[in-house]
Amino acid sequence: MFPRLKSGNFVLLSEHFDKQALKVGDIIKLLHPRYGYIVKTLVGIDHTGRYWFKGENKDSVGINEIGPIKASQIKSKVILVVG
């Protein structure tokens, strides 16, 4: 997630949040069928209710590799970054 999250940062995650209130730019921990648990940035929600994410780092897994994510795959939201 560099440059938004830097090495040595600590993040506080919450599993108790309203998925309907998510907005573009939120940092989310999700469970991906291929990559397991990953932390990515929300970039959009399509007309079918699927969520789309991207990495911040140039070497990160891209939006096309991640593909559409269902609400059930969203596990927690970053609510605080320290460091």
Give your account of this protein's structure:
This protein is mainly beta and 83 residues long. The protein is built from one helix and five strands. It has a five-stranded antiparallel sheet, with no helix packed on it. The radius of gyration is 12 Å and the shape is globular. 14% of the residues are buried.
Comma- or semicolon-separated keywords:
83 residues, mainly beta, 5-stranded antiparallel sheet, 1 helix
Distance between the termini: 14 Å
Rg, Å, rounded: 12 Å
Helical fraction equals under 10%
Proportion of residues in β-strands: 35-45%
Instruction: Find the count of extended strands (DSSP E, 2+ residues).
Output: 5
Main sheet makeup: 5 strands, antiparallel
The DSSP helix count reads: 1
The stretches of 5 or more residues where confidence is low (pLDDT under 50) are: none
In terms of structural class, how would the helical and strand content be classed?
mainly beta
Strand order of the largest sheet: 1-5-2-3-4
Shape: globular
Name the average pLDDT: 93
| Helix/strand order | EEEEHE
